[in-house]
Design goal:
Helices cover 80% and strands 0% of the residues. By secondary structure, it is an all-alpha fold.
């Protein structure tokens, strides 16, 4: 090989490393209080976002990829807890209109379970755009459930549904930041 070819190859390799490393360096940045504040500032309820992420003891020691996993886990737990609550509401409600609405919410939460499972698989594959899409789908499903149960003045599902929506939005803002959207 000629010296100029080797030098050109070495220069190309160094340029590739310089272009790739900053991208991966951003992902491996340890989560700080300032970073949490910045991420949660785009949430409709920043204090909820901060409290949720700080509630996990792993948060101070993870990077953005780990924080995304934490946000998915928080949404997963909230979704499954709320789904477990909806079944008895469907069975115990005497109001036939409300029973239909609770059944609709049950279907929407079945969809949320599928979305959170897709987000988990996407996280493992490093597909952060899919995590964003799944979080957005969860927020939409929660909004549809909220619309359905708004026929009653005080449903016990309403605060839980809002909480799930907030967890899904937390997942959304974290994954958007990880993907470089925010």
């Amino acid at each position: 090989m000629s010296a100029s070819f080797c030098a050109s190859l070495l220069l190309s390799l160094m340029l590739a490393i310089l272009l790739i490393c900053p991208t991966y360096a951003r992902l491996s940045v340890k989560v700080t209080e300032n970073l949490l504040n910045k991420i949660c500032s785009s949430h409709t309820d920043p204090p909820f976002c901060l409290q949720a992420l700080k509630s996990d003891p792993r948060t101070p020691s993870v990077d953005l990829i780990g924080l995304t996993n934490i946000s998915i886990h928080l949404a997963d737990v909230a979704i499954n807890n709320t789904l477990a609550m909806i079944g008895p509401l469907v069975n115990e409600t005497a109001d036939p209109k409300l029973k239909v609405q609770y059944d609709l919410c049950h279907q929407l939460y079945d969809s949320n379970v599928g979305e959170i499972e897709s987000a988990k698989r996407a996280w493992k594959a490093g597909d952060y755009k899919t995590i964003i899409v799944m979080a957005d789908g969860c927020i939409t499903d929660c909004g549809d459930c909220n619309d359905a149960i708004s026929i009653t003045a005080s449903s016990p599902l309403s605060p839980k549904n809002i909480e799930v929506s907030n967890y899904c939005e937390t997942q959304l803002v974290v994954s958007e930041y990880l993907d470089g959207i925010k």
